[in-house]
Amino acid sequence: MTEIAEEFSTGTGNTRNVDARRHVPGEPSMWFFVIGDLIIFGVYFVSYMYYRGQDQDMFLQGHAKLNLNIGAVNTVVLVTSSLFVALGTAAARAGKAPDALRLFGIALACGAAFPLLKLFEYIPEITAGMTPGTNLFFMYYYVMTGMHLCHVLLGLVILCFVIRNLRGPAKPRISFVETGATYWHMVDIVWLVLFALLYLMR
Amino acid sequence: MTKSVAPASEPATTRSRPWRKSRKLDQWIAFWSVPFFFSVFGVVFVPLSWMMPPRSPSSPQAQIVDFMHSHNLLIACAVLILAFGLGPVSNAVYLMQIKRMSVSPVFRYTVMMGAITGTIVGMLFPLFCFGLGAFRPGYAPAILAMLYDFGYLAFIGSLGCFCIMWMAFGLAIILDKNSILPKWLGYYTVWQYVSELIAAPVWIAKSGPFAWNGLMTFWLAMTLFVSWQFIVYVCIFRAIKNQPDDELENAWLEPEPASTDTLPRASA
Q: Could you say which DSSP state residue B244 is in?
């Protein structure tokens, strides 16, 4: 608070700094997308809880069959990736493009592990006869994790574009880096809720 | 000097024209066919035939037979197949706007073909199925039940066909550099079509939230779609309204005497 007041009092020289602090990170239209997406996932979470309340035994039986280990590893992988995205964004803002490039590279590698691990989770489940047709729990499981997986894949493509932006001969566009980071954090948040709802809740 | 004159003279000329002579008359006709088309749809689908909201996939056979034999259903299908002819006209408003964007024509053709393939399966198949059941009274109940399944699965399970169409539309808006439509509309379109993908489980679930009359597959997708469609048309209305007359594709059709044509040329 006092810092902002000071910057105002020092006059025109620091107005850019104040702007940087006030503005929404990334493009505002991406925030429109993120909020809309969170609302849709929110509707899914609420309806999941409603139907879970209707038939708790069936949901608990399904829950017991999930692979908690891979789920936990995936959570760690995504959170780590998000951390590197945050560090990379900070480096890009500070003008250290080579550092940012390296950090985003690690984030991309962590993020790419997610779909691979998911594959190791899905295939044994499907071969064991747990398909979306089994019961409502597995329908929710496949629809929600599948939708999230689509978001992860799109996020990996966006991260590749961010890396290209950082690497390019031109000066990197910070707003684009922030837009990509915003999207990637959303993917992370949705997974945290999904992990809690599907794997942890008893 | 000329800069200040040219924009001032243009709105004056557009405003002085009577609406019948507006150069955008074609676009406005296509535009206003949409509310007409959707109101006919709403009236026929809901109060006339009760085709919508969808009936349950697990309803007993006697109920299915009653529904498939109802006389109103036959009338409803006949009316809808006729009114469906307005579909191509109303799709023209999207294509006109995409053509103005700074994107590859591939997007325009994808939207066009997506609309065709999507509506054949999603609109004409169900209407033929429902109309067929009511057409001749002697069909066996099992056949009627199959037509009923076919109709609803085609109507709701085929939403995926529209996905590519809306994906092309959304991407075109995001990539466009002419700012024909607002960027947020592109992102809105993206999550609208992603929610249409969720129509796939209707092929598996026969009851509950993922059946064809379920909370997630029908009600959520419909709520998103209807509100999105409404906002898209408001945005397209503004895009048509803001397009300068001399940018219109049919500007050459009607050589305008005097002021508007000569002024920009003089300035250039």
A: -
Mutate to test the interface with B, among A31, A40, A52 (most CBs of B within 10 A): A40
Query: Does ipTM come in above 0.85?
Result: no
Rounded distance, CA A85 to CA A167, Å?
A: 15
Return contacts of A113-118, CB within 8 angstroms, 24+ apart: A113/A77, A114/A74, A114/A77, A114/A78, A114/A81, A114/A152, A115/A149, A115/A152, A115/A153, A115/A156, A117/A70, A117/A73, A117/A74, A117/A77, A118/A70, A118/A74, A118/A145, A118/A149
Domain residue ranges of chain A, discontinuous segments joined by +: 26-200
Q: Which residue of A has its CA nearest to B200?
A: A143
Best residue in A24, A27, A29 to probe B by mutation, most B CBs within 10 Å? A29
Supply the pLDDT for residue A44: 92
- CA nearest to B173 within chain A: A29
B42 falls within a domain: yes
CB within 8 Å: B188 and A33: yes
Residues A183 and A155: beta-carbon distance below 8 Å: yes
- Calculate how close chain B gets to A64, using CA atoms only, in Å: 22
Domain extent for B184: 16-248
pLDDT tens digits along A185-195: 999 999 999 99
Run of H or E including A62: helix A56-64
Q: What is the mean pLDDT of residues B28-52?
A: 86
Q: What is the pLDDT of residues A99-150, one digit of tens each?
A: 999 999 999 999 999 999 999 999 999 999 888 888 889 999 999 999 899 8
Q: What whole-number distance in Å separates Cα of residue A42 and Cα of residue A116?
A: 26
Q: Who among A27, A43, A139 is closest to B210 (CB)?
A: A139
- Name the residue facing A29 among B187, B209, B210 (closest C-beta): B187
Residue A53 Cα, gap to closest chain B Cα (Å): 14
Cβ atoms < 10 Å from Cβ of A198: 20
Q: What is the pTM of this model?
A: 0.78
Whether B257 maps to a domain, the answer reads no
Domain-located, residue B260: no
Please give the tally of structural domains in chain B.
1
**A26-200 homologous superfamily:** Cytochrome c oxidase, subunit III, four-helix bundle (1.20.120.80)
Q: For residue B179, give the 3-state DSSP assignment.
A: coil
On the question of pLDDT at A18 being above 50, the answer is no
Look at the block and give the residue holding tokens 């929404």. A24
Q: Is residue B126 included in any domain, yes or no? A: yes
The whole-number pLDDT of residue B6 equals: 41
